[in-house]
Amino acid sequence: MRRPAWVFPALLSACAFPVQAHLVDTGLGPVYDGMAHFLLTPEDLLPALALAVLAGLQGPAVARQVVVFLPSTWLLAGVLAAAFSWSWPGLPVWLPLLALGTLVVVDRPLPPPALLMMIAALGLLCGAANGSAMAIAGTGMRGVVGIAAALFVTSTLVAAAAVAWHRGRLRIAWRVVGSWIAASGLLMLGWSLR
Q1: Distance CA 67, CA 1 (A)
Q2: CB-count burial class (<10 Å; 0-12, 13-18, 19+) for 169
Q3: DSSP assignment of 152-187, as one string?
Q4: Max CA distance (Å), the chain
Q5: In whole angstroms, what is the distance from residue 96 CA to residue 151 CA?
């Protein structure tokens, strides 16, 4: 006996589970939910990676600044946004990807105040957006702590790799990584204009 082709897909769709776009519920608690959110959200992860690569290519002293100040500002802004339930519109997703990816591609030394301003801007804006999202999701400050922990580990590993492997062809490879991040920003810019 032949069944129509639509029976099996109809049965599968009847058993569908609810889906949420970005906030990840791991079932392990709010701290791990925050870690998973950061690692699975490209608009948070890619700018942080680009900033870590940019700092790592400029030397160990600059890399240490990113490792210390980026998670600190991200955590501060996230905790304040979660505590006061700020509704944060955020910044255009494409802007940090395009700007930081292009700076990695260009590979020119930046003056320390300019780099510190970029670290502060990215940490404060993305941290506030994450804090308000975590407040809405119900994970609150513990989710923000998870995000800051994942950010610290990720930026430390990437900045250390960029400091260690920065000569010859490996420097070109880091610039290629920056070009892919900038290309992602261009793609998101195109989607926002559509």
Answers
A1: 65
A2: exposed
A3: HHHHHHHHHHHHHS-STHHHHHHHHHHHHHHHHHHH
A4: 75
A5: 16
Nearest-angstrom CA–CA distance, 24 and 2: 41
pLDDT at position 126:
87
pLDDT tens for 140-185 read 788 889 999 999 999 999 999 999 988 888 888 989 999 999 999 9
pTM over 0.90: no
Backbone angles phi, psi at 4, to 5 degrees: -65, 155
What's the CA angle centered on 97, arms 26 and 131, to 5 degrees? Answer: 40
- What is the spatial distance between Cα 12 and Cα 3, in angstroms, rounded to a whole number? 15
Residue 93 identity: V
Provide the token pair at 96.
């940090």
Domain ranges for the chain, please list them: 29-193
Structure-token match 């960029």, residue found: 162
Q: Which of 89, 115, 111, 113 is nearest to 100 (CA)?
A: 115
Q: φ, ψ for residue 108 (rounded to 5)?
A: -115, 145
Candidates 152, 133, 170; CA nearest to 74 is: 152
| 1 contacts 20 by C-beta, under 8 angstroms | no
128 and 76 in contact (C-beta within 8 Å)?
no
Residue 12, token pair as written in the block? 């599968």
Q: What is the pLDDT of residues 50-88, one digit of tens each?
A: 999 999 999 899 899 899 999 999 999 989 888 887 766
